[in-house]
Amino acid sequence: MNQPIPRKLQIARRLNWICYIGLLLLFAVWNLFLPGGSIKWWLLQTVPLLLVLPGLAKGHYRSYLWLCFILLLYITASIVDVMMPGRGWQHGVLLVLSLTLFFSAMMTSRWQRMQ
Predict the structure, then answer these.
(1) Which listed residue, 35, 42, 79, 97, has the most CB atoms within 10 A of its CB?
(2) Pfam families, from UniProt (predicted)?
């Protein structure tokens, strides 16, 4: 018997996808369209995120947990970059997107296991 998906889980999943796609788009714009970017950096930034994509698409709660571990690297790097003078807007956007994705993925995993 299938139970209806709780509203908070639906919202968290939507927020996950919005932030996940936002991060991928940020890295694409940052490295492929702005001066100073390169394909090498774009691959280095996007490949770790793409590793969990199949599991996220299937809705596995462990993929959300792995995404949280991966995001810790992005959060740490973006906090350091935001605190350095002369950095661009991209670092602030990266920090906000990665923190939001971290918390929403963590809660999605928890709520999904409780269901």
Answers:
(1) 97
(2) DUF2069
What b/e sequence results for 83-104 when a residue is b if at least 16 CB atoms lie within 10 Å of its CB, and e otherwise? eeeeeeebbebbbebbbbbbeb
Q: 64, 108 in Cβ contact below 8 A?
A: yes
* Rounded distance between C-alpha atoms, residue 43 and residue 32, angstroms: 11
Tokens read off for 112:
């999904």
Any idea where the domains of the chain sit in the sequence? 7-114
Q: Which residue has the tokens 């918390």?
A: 103
Structure tokens, 76: 């740490």
Q: Which CA distances in Å does 109 have to 18, 52, 59?
A: 16, 13, 9
State pTM to two decimals: 0.90
pLDDT digits (tens, 9 = 90+) for 57-101: 999 999 999 999 999 999 999 999 999 888 878 889 999 999 999
What's the residue count for the chain?
115
